[in-house]
Amino acid sequence: MRVWGSDIFGKEWEDFWILLPGVPARTDRGFLGFCSVCLFRLQGELCLFDTGSYADRSLLLQQLGELRIDPIDIKYLMLSHLHYDHCLNLSLFPRAAVFLSRKDFVYARRVLAGEVVDSAVADNAVELLDRRDCTFVDEEMDLFGEVSLKVFPGHTPGGLVAVLRRNVRVALCGDVVKNACELVNRKPSMVTTDYDVAVRSMEKLLEVADHFIPGHDSPFSCRDGEIVLLSEMSIKISADLDLSKRTPLSMELRRGINYGIAFSFSL
Ligand SMILES: [Zn+2]
């Protein structure tokens, strides 16, 4: 489940992990909402990018436990935006200083006041940030010469992207780019601004880094306009349907690093 940065970006990324890989899947009941949750060291301190939602909570804690990390020791927390699938586990990290875009904070307040409709903004988004050490990013902010925080409109009015600069530049995209499919097809979904603005943000984002970790997909690079996948993606869905068996029926969707699509089914 956990992806090590050094496996895909080189040995300078030993202190970078995709704790929970993003999943570009939905059902006829709705969006599954499993986002990419990344952890890395910034000036020697632990920094988390996005938190996932309640459905991710036990696996997130398990992943931190396996790295022998106490959530209380996370010093910085970057929120790409305030949709429920990215921010609901904020309360697990009570000592973390939070970074988010000012535009999205104002937007969430407007949604919760009933001025704008956005069914994905967490009902308690503003409450979660109350009495927290928050830094609001307007357009761009540099952190210690190691990370650039940049704001891109599209999915939300001000999606926060973190660009980590080491031997290569890696962008943690949030939902400015949710998945490789929507990028390749220039077809952003769930857009809150102009559609063209969202497409332009995706294109601009490609210029600021070498590798990309989308909000809901596995990492990729972009070379001469071509998307190159850097790790496989899989999701297994189980359902308790068969009354005669103790094991659930399950289905696995998988995309290999060479774009091989596989589907397996177990009864
Ligand atoms: Zn999302």
Automatic annotation (TrEMBL):
Its cofactor is Zn(2+). InterPro entries: MBL_superfamily_lactonases, Metallo-B-lactamas, RibonucZ/Hydroxyglut_hydro. The keyword Metal-binding applies. The keyword Lyase does not apply. GO terms for molecular function: hydrolase activity; metal ion binding. Pfam families: Lactamase_B. It comes from the Bacteria. Belongs to the metallo-beta-lactamase superfamily. This is Glyoxylase, beta-lactamase superfamily II.
